[in-house]
């Protein structure tokens, strides 16, 4: 007797979703306060500053430490997920070039070329860029906190600003794609929200090989 597969499939478990929520909440606060300070508004409280009663510089520093702690906790507690993220993100196949060539049109049509990864090739590139830039922001942020002045401070500040300039459009692009506004990515927002379950047809469109492996694991009898 065979059972028909459910209409939805779990992409991310609760721990992954909560970690993701903590990361994007802190990163968005850091972007808001960081850009506020970068644009020379230090003497004028941002909405967040007015709401909390902290200056934007104090908020930026405090949330920066919170983000660093969350990242460290995620690597320790969720080391398996971190390993999957890194190992799959650095693995590229020749067929991924075909996916990347077709991607601009597929964003609209939903007809993505097949790929074999846990993440699609675009996600893998974005993952690597985000890891490098966010790590740079943490390291230079700690450097700015520990050094009070001099040429080292100037370099930390310069690198921190440039990492901010580079990471902002990457995060904006991630939000645009993950929101499901683009036709090709419609429904993918459910992977990180509402139980982490998305429709099977959406999973098959964006992550076909992952869905096949998921189904194979579900059909495999449990080990005794």
TrEMBL record:
GO CC field: plasma membrane
Protein name: Formate dehydrogenase subunit gamma
Keywords: Cell membrane, Membrane, Transmembrane, Transmembrane helix
Transmembrane regions: 21-39, 59-82, 128-156, 162-182
A Pfam family assignment: Ni_hydr_CYTB
Membrane topology (UniProt): Multi-pass membrane protein
Superkingdom, taxonomy of origin: Bacteria
Localisation: Cell membrane
Sequence ranges assigned to domain Cytochrome b561 bacterial/Ni-hydrogenase in this UniProt record: 14-192
Keyword Membrane part of the UniProt annotation: yes
UniProt keyword Nucleus present: no
Protein source organism: Jiangella alkaliphila
Molecular function GO labels: electron transfer activity
């Amino acid at each position: 007797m065979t059972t028909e597969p459910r209409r939805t499939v779990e992409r991310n478990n609760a721990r992954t979703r909560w970690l993701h929520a903590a990361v994007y909440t802190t990163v968005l606060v850091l972007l808001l306060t960081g850009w506020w300070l970068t644009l020379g508004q230090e003497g004028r409280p941002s909405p967040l500053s007015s709401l909390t009663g902290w200056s934007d510089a104090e908020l930026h520093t405090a949330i920066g430490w919170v983000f660093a702690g969350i990242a460290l906790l995620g690597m320790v507690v969720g080391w398996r997920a971190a390993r999957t993220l890194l190992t799959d993100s650095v693995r590229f196949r020749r067929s991924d070039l075909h996916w990347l060539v077709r991607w601009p049109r597929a964003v609209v049509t939903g007809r993505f070329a097949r790929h074999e990864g846990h993440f699609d090739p675009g996600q893998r590139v974005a993952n690597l860029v985000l890891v490098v830039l966010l790590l740079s922001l943490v390291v230079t942020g700690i450097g700015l906190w520990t050094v009070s002045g001099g040429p080292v401070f100037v370099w930390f500040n310069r690198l921190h600003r440039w990492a901010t300039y580079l990471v902002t459009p990457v995060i904006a692009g991630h939000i645009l794609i993950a929101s499901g506004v683009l036709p090709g990515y419609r429904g993918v927002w459910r992977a990180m929200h509402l139980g982490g379950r998305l429709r099977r047809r959406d999973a098959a469109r964006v992550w076909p090989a992952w869905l096949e492996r998921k189904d194979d694991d579900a059909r495999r009898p449990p080990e005794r």
